[in-house]
Amino acid sequence: MISTKKLLIMFLALVMIAGFIYQTDTASADETTEQAEATEEPILLKEGSEGDDVIMLQLRLKDLGYYNYKITNYFGSFTEQALIDFQKVNGLSRDGVLGEATYAIVYSNDAIRKPIEAVVQPTPKPAYAGSSRIPKAALRDWFTYVLPRFSRGEVIKVFDVKTGISYNMIRVGGYNHADVEPVTAEDCAKLLSTYGGSWSWERRPIVVLLDGEYIAASTNGYPHGYETVPGNDMYGQVCIHFLNSRTHNADAVDPQHQEAIQYAYLATN
User: Fold this and answer.
1) 107 phi and psi, to 5 degrees?
2) In a designed cystine with 233, which of 103, 184, 185, 259 is the match (CB 3.0 to 4.6 A)?
3) pLDDT in tens, 140-154
4) 135 has pLDDT over 60
C-alpha cells in the first residue's frame, strides 16, 4: 500500500510536469504569433483611410490612368477599385490595399500605366489649308480648358515653331501636364529631327492642333518613364506643357516651358 507521503510526492511531480508542458506550449504559440506578425506585410492605406497620403495615392493613380474621379482625402470604393486595377496590370496581389509591395511600384518609374483601349483619331480642320505656315495659336489654360478636352488615347498634330516640322503624338497619361508618345516610328524620327538628331531636355515652342484648334504649347525631347505605344522607335514618353501646367513630381510651374509657350504664341500671332 502506497503511503500518503509518496502520494503527495507523486502529485507534486505531476503538477510540475503539467506546468512545464503548458509553459512550453504557450511559448511556442507566442513564438508562432510573433513570426506571423513579422512576416505579414504592413498595410499603409486601405478602404476607410483618410488624409494627405490618400490624396497623394489618388493623384498618382489618376496620373497613371486608373483613377478618374474627384480627388478627396478619403479611401473609398472608387480608390480601392483603381488600386486593384493597378495591381492587376502590374502583376501584384489584387487585394485593394496599399502595402509595402504595392507602394514600392506605384510611386516608381517602373509603374505600368493603364493600357489604352482605343485610339481616338482627330479630324483636323486647318485654318490655312494647303499652306506650310503655322496658323495663329491661342493661349489656353491646361487645367480648365485643355485637360477636359485632351483625353488619353487621343492623337494630336504637333508643329515645331522654329523648324516648321510637324508630327503626330498620342496622349498616354499625365495629370499636371500631358505625357505623350509618337504615334509611329516616322513621327518619332520627325520629333528627333527637331532636336538635331539627339534626345534632349531642351524646351521647344510648339503649336498643337487639338479638336480643330491651334494651341500654344511646349515640349521636351528626352524619353522617360514607361513605354505605352510599341513599335514607335521611342521607349518612354516626353512631356507637353500648356499655359499654367505643372510638373508631376514637384507639382510646380516650369518657367522654361512657360517661356516656350509664350514664344509659340507670339511667333504665330
Assistant:
1) -100, 15
2) 185
3) 999 999 999 999 999
4) yes
